[in-house]
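Below is how a single chain appears once it has passed through the pipeline. First comes the sequence as given, then the structure the pipeline wrote out for it. We keep one example in the README because the format questions we get most often are answered faster by looking than by reading.
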Amino acid sequence: MTYLGSKDFLIEVQKGNVAGHSLVHKFGRNDSVPNASWEFVNLLQFTAWPLSAATTVRVKAGNAADDTGGNGAREITIQGIDSNFAELSEAVATAGASASANTTASFWRVHRAWVSAAGVYGAANTAAVVVENSAGGTDLIQIGIEEGQTQFAGWTVPTGKTAYLLSATITADATKAIDFRMLTRGNIDDTTAPLDSKRLKLFFDGVLGTLTFVPRSPGGAIAAKTDIWWEARGSGAQSEASVDFELLVVDD
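Resulting structure:
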């Protein structure tokens, strides 16, 4: 008998052989975790989700080589959930030192982006690539220099789905302890008080080096339209941190 958390079962899910089930693998890094205050584990060091309404987005003005005719990133695919809270991916052409055109669809959340076309074999983005709201002024996610992929330890459960935490691997600078916590907030479209509160789900004190968390059973059900994210806090010094986590996502 193959049980829910077994490797064989999860491989079959990954292969698309288990109806109504899928896996989400998210990873993030914050290379400048502040001392004594919390930040999201991503390259932009958020302290709160940047959007509270659906909006079109674009690639922020950047490096001239990251252009449709350049040697760097020619196209960026942006992934998240749309104005109806369904999963969404949309590709946009880069425009180098100018902002790109806006996406056609509106995003409630952007939780991943990657270089989906480059100008030179083996290349990626020449400079850091930032996705922002279409009006400008609000940075949403970043692809590090020459990395081709965002690093953001956060995800939002789409409509019609329920998520379960399978595992998390946490790393901290081996000489500077870092506190980590995983939080959720439901009903992200509820923007008028009284609001859903964010809720602590996991907390790890004073991590040095690597910590792996694999519960005996998947973490409790996380409902549709719920944000899931990790934060880090330095203890005595600025430091570096990363989080890699996996979710089993089941159709309702």
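The mean pLDDT is 94.

See the next section for the split statistics.
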